[in-house]
């Protein structure tokens, strides 16, 4: 299915320092630049991110999709650094992102990620999406 409106997907790493700037970018792209935007939030837990899923706060052409938390306890020990944990959380979330994009009626034409999301570029390549890395902090 084709749509003339550009459709951007933003993949957001866990943490408010990533989430809030990404949502602001999505709002601006939707409001000021005519994009349809889907923000994929990689959750550490549902409690910390579920409040951002409320559509009342967003323009009508901005969607928020909460990817379920992943369990990395068998891969990464409790003493691992936050950076290492983020890398593995994002890596384990890739199949969930791929499934979400595959299920969309109108797929995004571009994927925007932060520093922890660059492994998702393989999914962007698979779906022939433009790909961008940005600093959200």
TrEMBL record:
Spell out the Gene3D superfamilies in the cross-references: Glycogen Phosphorylase B
Keywords noted in UniProt: Glycosyltransferase, Transferase
Determine the domain of life of the protein's source: Eukaryota
For the keyword Glycosyltransferase, the answer is yes
Q: Is Glycosyltransferase one of the keywords UniProt gives this record?
A: yes
Which GO MF terms does the UniProt record name? coniferyl-alcohol glucosyltransferase activity
Q: Which PANTHER family match?
A: UDP-GLYCOSYLTRANSFERASE 72E1
**Per its record, how is this protein called by name?**
Uncharacterized protein
Origin species, per record, is Rubroshorea leprosula
């Amino acid at each position: 299915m084709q749509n003339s409106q550009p459709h951007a997907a933003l993949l957001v790493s866990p943490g408010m320092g990533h989430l809030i700037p990404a949502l602001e970018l999505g709002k601006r792209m939707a409001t000021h630049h005519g994009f349809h935007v889907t923000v994929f939030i990689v959750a550490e837990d549902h409690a910390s991110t579920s409040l951002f899923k409320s559509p009342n706060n967003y323009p009508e052409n901005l969607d928020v999709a909460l990817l379920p938390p992943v369990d990395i306890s068998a891969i990464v020990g409790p003493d691992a650094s936050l950076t290492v944990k983020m890398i593995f959380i994002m890596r384990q979330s890739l199949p969930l992102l791929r499934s979400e994009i595959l299920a969309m009626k109108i797929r995004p034409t571009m994927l925007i990620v932060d520093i922890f999301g660059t492994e998702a570029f393989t999914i962007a390549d698979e779906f022939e999406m433009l790909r961008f890395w940005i600093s959200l902090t």
